[in-house]
């Protein structure tokens, strides 16, 4: 098992990671002028993105690194975590979430945030290559797991569903047992004769 990456260790995108990001859209010219500038890139070309609120996204990221295979690149932008996934994830993940009855009243995931899936025809804002320059920009856009190769591993919809369900279970304390009746008499039956 891998340990969760330390957010403070992220230095920025490597040249190979920048080439991978630039393959999604025409960001290279802007980054040549200002490497810290966030840019808008199309999804569905070299990656899809699943966007979740930052706190829930951190829970998903922890599950991916502590109990699962790790993650692909991950960014934070304006209070939302952007988990980069394989192309096609945005098309398949919503069906898997419906199958899990994600967020439906009475389901085990009721009360958890919706996952926004961005695929073909969508675009997302990604942080600059060098990361934020000042403290004000840190809250706007930053890499939590920066791209570091021309072909980074990207989780598919099943892996992201697994992480979301695990994070939801931890967030809402799902139990197979009904809540205890506070007024019930409790007897110790552990000592049998």
Please give the structural blueprint:
Layout: H1 15-22, H2 28-33, E1 39-42, E2 48-53, H3 54-66, E3 74-77, E4 80-85, H4 89-99, E5 116-118, E6 123-126, H5 135-138, E7 141-145, H6 157-172
Helix pairs in contact: 3-6, 4-6
Top keywords for this entry?
6 helices; 7 strands; two-stranded antiparallel ribbon; about 30% helix; alpha+beta
Q: Helix count, per DSSP? A: 6
Q: Name the beta content range.
A: 15-25%
**What's the shape?**
elongated
Biggest beta sheet attributes: 5 strands, antiparallel
How much helix, percentage-wise, in residues? Answer: 25-40%
Low-pLDDT stretches: 6-10
Spatial ordering of strands, largest sheet: 5-2-4-3-7
Q: Work out the number of β strands.
A: 7
**Tally of discrete structural domains:** 1
For the residues shown, what is the average pLDDT? 81
The chain-level structural class is: alpha+beta
Distance between the termini: 45 Å
Radius of gyration: 20 Å
Query: Could you state the order of secondary-structure elements as H and E?
Result: HHEEHEEHEEHEH
Structure description:
By secondary structure, the chain is of the alpha+beta class. The protein has one domain. Strands 5-2-4-3-7 form a five-stranded antiparallel beta sheet. Strands 1-6 form a two-stranded antiparallel sheet. The termini are far apart. About 3% of the residues have low confidence.
């Amino acid at each position: 098992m891998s340990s969760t990456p330390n957010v403070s260790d992220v230095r920025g995108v490597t040249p190979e990671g920048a080439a991978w990001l630039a393959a999604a859209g025409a960001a290279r010219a802007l980054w040549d002028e200002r490497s810290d500038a966030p840019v808008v890139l199309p999804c569905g070309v070299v990656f899809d993105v699943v966007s979740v609120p930052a706190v829930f996204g951190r829970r998903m990221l922890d599950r991916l690194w502590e109990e699962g295979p790790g993650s692909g690149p991950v960014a934070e932008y304006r209070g939302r975590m952007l988990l980069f996934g394989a192309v096609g994830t945005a098309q398949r993940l919503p069906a898997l979430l419906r199958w899990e009855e994600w967020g439906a009243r009475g389901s085990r995931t009721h009360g958890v945030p919706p996952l926004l899936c961005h695929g073909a025809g969508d675009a997302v804002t990604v942080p600059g290559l060098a990361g934020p320059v000042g403290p004000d920009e840190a809250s706007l856009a930053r890499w939590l797991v920066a791209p570091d190769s021309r072909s980074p591993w990207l989780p598919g919809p099943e892996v992201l569903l697994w992480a979301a369900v695990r994070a939801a279970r931890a967030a809402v304390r799902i139990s197979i047992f009904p809540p205890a009746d506070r007024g019930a008499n409790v007897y110790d039956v552990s000592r049998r004769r």
